[in-house]
Sequence to fold (264 residues):
Amino acid sequence: MTPPLAWYLGLSAVLFAIGVLGVLIRRNVIIIFMAIELMLNAVNLSFVAFARSLGSMDGQVIVFFVMTVAAAEAAVGLAIILSMFRNRETTNADELATLRW
Amino acid sequence: MSPLLFLVLAALTVVSALTVVVHKNPVHCACALVLTLCLLAVFFLALDAQLVALLQVIVYAGAIVVLFLFVVMLLNLQKESRAMAGALLVGSGAAGGAGLLVLLVVALRHASAPAASQVPAGFGETATLARQLFTAYLLPFELTSVLLLVAIVGAVALARKPT
Fold:
């Protein structure tokens, strides 16, 4: 027997909550980025679980797109972090507060 | 996948995801992220998503995390003084994460989908996914290539040293 859909959704919810926790408590922007990747993957797990449960391929196609967007987002985001570090010599989110009211 | 195997793998996944979030050294965080992504690929395999599992390992664990490691190497982040936020923020962050988890679980408890015990033929195979991509999802697929081009140009433009 295979695990029911609810187990996969529960695991996905736990991973998403861990990702949110990471964004909230870490101050290093690179780690915050990793936590965002974690959240994207939690959602991917939900998509694949629903696709299997409904017997439809659409969920897996969406996961394909999510992966592509995540790759683009990581490339641009890390480039921003790099140029920010070059200008400010820090990756601490508390010190990068120029845009805060 | 048997339920016991699922529970073991799920526990491993949660532990490695927590390691990503709480470990002080960014390199160790990236390694734990690789482990998490590979474990998720195992779940994808169990859910009849072979191509997605393969892409997960190649694209995520192979490309994106390597990108992270390169940036960590370039920034030389060994000496990190305050990795965590203040105690107040950590406490409220943990409470917020737990609250979100409770919310998701309560919302998903009544989520029911017709359990398809037998999936259609060719489910999760490359040919089936490719047919979907090039028929129903052709426009988003082509837009994705434009997005990737923009990301490449943007990343190069941002990361280049100002002359």
